[in-house]
Design brief:
Blueprint (H helix, E strand, L loop, with lengths): L2 H16 L3 H13 L4 H13 L3 H14 L4 H22 L6 E5 L9 E6 L4 E6 L19 E9 L2 E7 L9 E7 L5 E7 L10 E7 L10 E2 L9 E6 L5 E6 L9 E8 L2 E2 L3 E2 L10 E6 L5 E5 L9 E8 L2 E7 L10 E6 L12 E7 L9 E7 L9 E6 L1 E5 L9 E6 L4 E6 L5 E6 L6 E6 L5 E6 L3
Antiparallel strand pairs: 1-21, 2-3, 3-4, 4-5, 6-7, 7-8, 8-9, 10-11, 11-12, 12-13, 12-14, 15-16, 16-17, 17-18, 19-20, 20-21, 22-27, 23-24, 25-26, 25-28
Helix pairs in contact: 1-2, 2-3, 3-4, 4-5
């Protein structure tokens, strides 16, 4: 095949990548490599393998890329370390004594379409985003080919229990995309993302809209918040626990990368100029889906920080207008796919339930009902490892007042390096074994079962 054929294979692979058909992208990047497209195809193949959790193969391809482009070693070593961490995290959750997390799909909320980013609306209800068939409007989203997104509500009386799914107020949902809602503490204010209008003469950029609950419990007509100019995409709003800061995502050209997290201070007559949340969380990649937990922990998703593949969920500490202690939430909350939109559920559990934390998050991982699905995670104490019993001793020989007479009074002991310890069970003929010691030591140490009394004898040459 010619160089043109290799370039075509690479473009086909990129098309599959951008439409999230990762297995097909992997196949075509392999074809581009076979047809000698170059090192860029090797790097893309490594990333496709990583997204599919084929971490050992991904490491091999990252190393192959380094053979072609050794000057990028610092950057690629980060990718290799991320793959090694992912393997370690997954292995730990397969160990019955290290496993401390259960992840299950929330089937009551998921549909065959996309369902994601739940948020509490008061005590007994959540609001989430969905493109299920009951979303408003007959038109199809030109990007996804499915329904546009709307906001839906579900009643919840207990962690993990959901019922009565209905569309949110008609004042909020439109025939276009509405989603990613956030509420203040008493659920009297709502912030959400809206994209799309009937005006075909303007670009349909996404913006953040505000609505408040009216006396009849309906929502007021939403008003767009005037952050930045109207030629930027904004979304994923979230309020700080005190309601005084609004965090959101924007694709501002002066940011650090694709999409960054910004914040704005509530003022008497509106909101302050947005500020970039800084390089401690924002990267050359994409940061999105900010939220706060009940204890003030900040959560967000990133594909620019070292992770398992796509978007990973991270935690961070927010203080004095800056972030610190950024940590990956690890497997199984994170996966090779996109993981985002976490919600911590701190409602009290029934007495006797051995659970440390419960929450929900969204993911495009395999095994779901649709494109994106909502999952529940349950953090539990680790199973205690059984105790390990060690039999240890030191072989010594008595010395006597008269070295030629062992019946004379003993005066001291000396160690016997290189001797042999013979260990058995007291009162039985069973022999556990003979343990020759090294020439420079007189101590022995072995793992034994609990219970029996042991009989130990020793011998040495000379």
């Amino acid at each position: 095949p010619s160089t043109d054929h290799a370039a075509i294979a690479f473009k086909i692979a990129q098309s599959y990548k951008f439409t999230n058909n990762i297995p097909a992208a992997e196949k075509w990047f392999e074809t581009a490599i076979e047809w000698e497209y170059g090192s860029e195809a090797i790097l893309e193949l490594a990333r496709m393998l990583k997204i599919q959790e084929k971490y050992t193969e991904a490491i091999q391809q990252f190393n192959n890329y380094l053979k072609e482009e050794p000057y990028r070693r610092p950057e690629i070593n980060v990718e290799i370390n991320a793959c090694e961490n992912a393997l370690s995290w997954m292995k730990a959750q397969q160990d019955e004594y290290e496993k401390d997390m259960i992840v299950i799909p929330v089937t009551a909320l998921n549909s065959g379409a996309a369902d994601f980013q739940p948020a509490f609306r008061g005590e007994g209800q959540i609001v989430f985003t969905s493109s299920r068939s009951s979303a408003m409007g007959d038109a199809k989203d030109s990007w996804t080919g499915g329904q546009y997104f709307d906001l839906f509500t579900a009643n919840t009386s207990y962690p993990g229990k959901f019922s009565t799914i209905e569309p949110l107020d008609l004042a909020v949902n439109t025939p276009y995309n509405d989603g990613s809602a956030a509420f203040n503490a008493d659920a009297s204010e709502m912030f959400f993302t809206r994209c799309g209008t009937d005006n075909r003469k303007v670009d349909d950029y996404c913006g953040i809209f505000y609505s408040y609950r009216q006396p009849d419990d309906s929502w007021s007509e939403p008003v767009e918040l005037p952050f930045f100019e109207d030629s930027l995409n904004l979304g994923s709003p979230c309020l700080s626990p005190d309601g005084q800061l609004l965090f959101f995502v924007a694709t501002e050209e002066n940011g650090y990368g694709g999409s960054d997290i910004y914040f704005s201070q509530r003022l008497f007559d509106g909101w302050s100029e947005p500020e970039n949340a800084g390089s401690n969380i924002n990267t050359a990649g994409n940061e999105a889906f900010p939220s706060f937990g009940p204890d003030g922990t900040f959560y967000f998703s990133s594909d620019g920080l070292p992770g398992m593949g796509g978007l990973d969920i991270f935690s961070a500490k927010w203080s004095n207008k800056q972030f610190s202690r950024v940590n990956n939430m690890e497997y199984p909350i994170n996966s090779g796919a996109d993981d985002f939109g976490i919600l911590i559920d701190d409602r009290p559990l029934r007495s006797g339930e051995d659970t440390l934390a419960i929450g929900y998050f969204s993911s495009s991982r395999k095994g779901g009902a649709g494109n994106d699905d909502i999952y529940m995670f349950i953090k539990t104490p680790k199973k205690p490892r059984p105790p390990v019993f060690i039999l240890a001793g030191n072989i010594q020989q008595k010395t006597y007042e008269d070295p030629e007479d062992v019946t004379s009074p003993p005066v001291d002991t000396i160690v016997l390096p290189g001797s042999v310890a013979v260990i058995g069970i007291e009162g039985e003929l069973q022999l556990l074994g003979k343990y020759p010691l090294k020439e420079d030591t007189s101590t022995f140490r072995l793992q034994v079962d609990k219970g029996p009394a042991f009989k130990i004898t020793a011998s040495a040459e000379g």
